Structure formats: C-alpha cells, structure tokens
Amino acid sequence: MAVSSVHAPTGDRVVVATGLVAVGYWLAHCYVDAVSGRFRDSGHSLWDRTRAALRLNVGVLLGAVPGIVVYLVAYAFGLDVEDAALVAVWFTVLLLGVVGFLAAYRAGARGTRLVGETLLAAAFAGVVIGVKYLLH
C-alpha cells in the first residue's frame, strides 16, 4: 500500500494493487511451505502439502484486511490517496505493536523485555513507512 499509493491516480488502484500483493505473498508463502516441507515429510505428496499450505496460511491474506479497511475508511472520509495510505500504514504500526505486546506478555515477558519486544514488532511496519518516504 505504501508503494502503490505514491503515484496512484485513484484510490481503487491502491486497493487492487495491495490485494494483489497480498495474494502474491500468500502464494509465495504457501509455495515455500509446501516445497520445503517435502524434505521433512516424504510421506505426503506435493499436492497434499500444497492443499494444506493454502488452507493453513490464510492468515497471510487476512493480515492485509485491517490495513485495507482503514485505508478505505480514510479515503471515504476525504483523505487523498497518499494520506489515506499513510493513515493505514501508521495503523498497521500500531496494530503490530499491540499484537507484539500481547504475544510477548502472554509468553511471560515483563519490564524492559516486554517493551523491547513490543517496539521490535512495531518496527517491522515502521520500515514500510521508511520505504514510503524514500520513494516519495
């Protein structure tokens, strides 16, 4: 979304491009999962592993949904394409930080370790913002 919004003429192109990138990442993730798993599990065919990978990795697709929804809401409220994408990307930073915090807390991290793991989780999305500014 950060990249496709830089010079997109319309908001719907950003949504389509982001959706297609998410599908591409999902398929790549499924491919790696299915093929690399074949080395560990010779008892199941590549077809079996591919079907399982397509089903088990749907989370990769679902991970794109919150950002797209936030983008659409921001765009519907009158923000231009780039600003709506920036709101969606910052939302993703916040979301990844919250999820990172919850995962670390549930795993028993406290104090500075909890803060560090939360910041690291949010930093993954922060890199995307950095790329957006580099492209602009």
Break the fold down into its secondary structure elements and pairings.
Blueprint: H1 11-40, H2 46-56, H3 58-62, H4 65-76, H5 81-106, H6 111-135
Helix pairs in contact: 1-2, 1-4, 4-5, 5-6
Overview of this protein structure:
The protein is an all-alpha fold and 136 residues long. It has one domain. It contains 6 helices and no strands. α1 packs across α2, α1 runs antiparallel to α4 and α4 packs antiparallel against α5. The chain starts with 10 loop residues before the first helix and ends with a helix.
Highlighted features:
mainly alpha; 136 residues; 0% strand
What's the helix-strand series?
Answer: HHHHHH
Extended strand count: 0
Given the structure, what is the number of helices?
6
Helix content: over 70%
Structural class: mainly alpha
Largest sheet: none
Proportion of strand residues? under 5%
Give start-end ranges of low-pLDDT stretches: none
Q: What is the residue-averaged pLDDT?
A: 89
Shape: flat
Q: Provide the gyration radius in Å.
A: 18 Å
Number of domains: 1
Gap from first CA to last CA? 13 Å
| Oligomer designation | single chain
Concise structural overview:
This protein is mostly helical and about 140 residues long. About 80% of the residues lie in helices and about 0% in strands.
